[in-house]
Amino acid sequence: MRERTIRGAWRAARGRRRHAAVLVPLVAAALVLATTGLATVHWPLSAAREPAGTSGDALVVSADLQDALRPADAADTRDLDTFVRRLTAGTPRPPDVLLLTEVLGPGARHLARALGEATGDRYTALVAPGSSVFASDASVRESAIVVNTTTMDTVEPGRFVRVQSEDQAYAVLARHGTRLRLPVVAAHAAGDPLPAVRALHAVVDGSGGGAGKGDDSDGIDTVPVLGGDYRSGRCVDPAPLQPVDCAAGAFWTTLTETYGYEDAFFSRSAAATVRQSGYVFAHGTVKDAHVDTAYAADLPDRAACKADFDAGRSAEASARCRADYYADAPFGWAVLTAGQPITRAAVPGRVTLDHCELGVRKGATLARVVNNTDQDLTDQVTATATAPLTVEPATGTLTVPAGQAATLPVRISAPYEGADGTGGTTNTAEDPTTGQVTVTVGGVRTDVTVSLPADCTEAPAIATSYHPGRPPEDAVDGDIDTFWHSEYSPPHPLPQSITVNLKAPKQIHALTYQPRFDGNLNGTITAYNVYVSTDGQDFAKVADGTWPADARLKTADFDPVTARYVRLEATSASGGSFCSAAEIAVE
Questions:
Q1: Contact 169, 160 (CB under 8 A)
Q2: Residue 171 near residue 126, CB atoms below 8 Å
Q3: For labelling alongside 572, which of 215, 295, 527, 533 has CA 20 to 30 A away?
Q4: What is the Cα–Cα distance from 586 to 570, expressed in whole angstroms?
Q5: How far is residue 532's CA from residue 558's CA, in Å, rounded to a whole number?
């Protein structure tokens, strides 16, 4: 262990790579940021770090630094220095391009200087706002592009492009000494991200031909990149868990299917199911990607730090905050290179079955084809799994229009045996086990590694459908002001049901139902069935009946029975073919 500043650490590592014939991998080195007063931290210096300027790829960082709106916050650079420290610790080589949002010109230039000191490369803030988010015409500017000029050339001078009344940073860059060209945007979508991504795609797609389809007429490999914060998660449902096979937002499917971009963090990082609004969308090949998911564990209560940092009082924050806080959301990076005429794969390539539903582990991967040719194509998809995994469907077809992409969800499941043998409680295994799903798309095979950790999280309630913002958990949260509502846009006709998870087998004899209590009786259940189950798979009906269409508490009684899951099914409800519940309890 040695203690160095960031500057000395990375420069020393680069020097060893240049001059040593045989390099021994370095163990974690402690960094002391004496100039900023940050606490000592540890990060690895790997002899395998790739030297800059030798390959036809680019390492692109996307980060929302939340350092633009408050002058005192912008003047306090402790969080920016922490970002640089964490960035240099978490990337395999010095970044080539940083696509930043919620940052002003002074902050972007500070980062460029700090990165230069950390890496020994030269960085410049190629496109950045001034000292205010407001330009002279009162438009909003809060994005910036910082470039490693040691590894990247500027093909087209940086500028701002106006999208949804905000100016987004834009430039065209090239990897020094290679054919790789990157039209890039650092965007902060102001409203609906769908029109924003359409406009941004038009900007980068018109740069340098090619549009990420391999060699263009000038022999240039062009990879358009849309980075930044789009203020929306991948899934329509805003829940923290974003299942691989969720109903995706229109902006995401437009980019990843209609335009054929790759969502780098979804496809290649370990954060495929984590809700985030920062992205690197690339119309090319994503060789590797990573999101700073360890940030949540290192600083679990970022909100406790935010108030002091937003006010520019970082010196008054706790020692933990001073050492680790850099923004509300983690940054991510991706290594990008030229695309291929046709790409076939399963993404993500690693799946963790750590979420259960009705006593069964569930997850998914997507069979995906990107068709950068001028001809439509149709591919056959097959999927197989090793025990105890099962997949569905085992076969399928993907028809992909020219210049677009298409996906087919391959759903993965496995039994979950809890400590008491009922499913859904704590598994006593000390180590995760793994299985494999093999997905073959058009003859191209992808082996997806599936992890089965000891613990499996199961929601307190699930439903056959729900409208975004009205999840089934709202019917069992003890708050009468929140409620579950079945999906009505598009219509999901009755019957619909909600299943309550009791977490362990219990003897029960009644279910109580509180309709929504906001003065609107839409969805109030008037005819019902009640079912129970011990394993989440086999259900038996224990009650049925009718209730009046009013807001009073209702009860369904039945003979005592042992159950772990209790299902309330609505066969009729007031107001239309949908149902709702403010609270459901079991006695």
A1: yes
A2: yes
A3: 533
A4: 17
A5: 11
166-175/225-229 β-pairing: unpaired
Give strand pairing partners of 368.
345, 407
Q: Is 160 helix (H, G, I), strand (E, B) or coil?
A: strand
Q: Are 420 and 412 in contact (CB under 8 A)?
A: no
Q: What is the pLDDT of residue 303?
A: 86
Strands 58-67, 360-371: pairing is unpaired
CA distances from 557 to 124, 222, 383, 551, 569 (A): 71, 67, 45, 19, 15
Tell me the residue type at 126.
L
**φ, ψ dihedrals at 231, nearest 5°:** 55, 30
Dist. CA 527–CA 554, nearest whole Å: 12
What is the CB-side half-sphere exposure of residue 235 using CA atoms within 13 A? 19
Burial class for 144, CB neighbours closer than 10 Å (0-12, 13-18, 19+): buried
Q: Are 256 and 368 in contact (CB under 8 A)?
A: no
- The tens digit of pLDDT for each residue in 432-461 reads 688 999 999 999 999 999 999 988 999 999
Q: Quick one: which H or E segment has residue 12?
A: helix 6-19
Number of Cβ atoms within 10 Å of the Cβ of 466 = 24
Residues 413 and 520: their CA atoms lie apart, in Å, by 39
| pLDDT at residue 345 is higher than 80 | yes
Strands 278-282 and 285-291: unpaired
What is the number of other CB atoms lying within 10 angstroms of the CB of residue 409?
Answer: 16
Tracing tokens 């610790």 back to the chain, one arrives at: 89
Distance, in Å, from the CA atom of 300 to the CA atom of 164, rounded to the nearest integer, reads 34
* C-alpha to C-alpha distance for 555 and 510, rounded to whole angstroms: 7
User: Once rounded to an integer, what is the mean pLDDT over residues 490-507?
Assistant: 96
Q: What is the pTM of this model?
A: 0.85
Residue 319: strand, helix, or coil: helix
Q: How far apart are the first and last CA of the chain?
A: 59
Domains of the chain in start order, with CATH, are 1-49 (no CATH), 58-337 (3.60.10.10), 342-458 (2.60.40.10), 461-586 (2.60.120.260)
Element (H, E) at 191: none
Secondary structure class of 217 (helix, strand, coil): coil
Q: What angle do CA 235, 335, 353 make, to 5 degrees?
A: 40
β-pairing, 262-263 with 221-222? unpaired
Cite the DSSP H helix spans in 258-315: 264-268, 294-298, 302-310
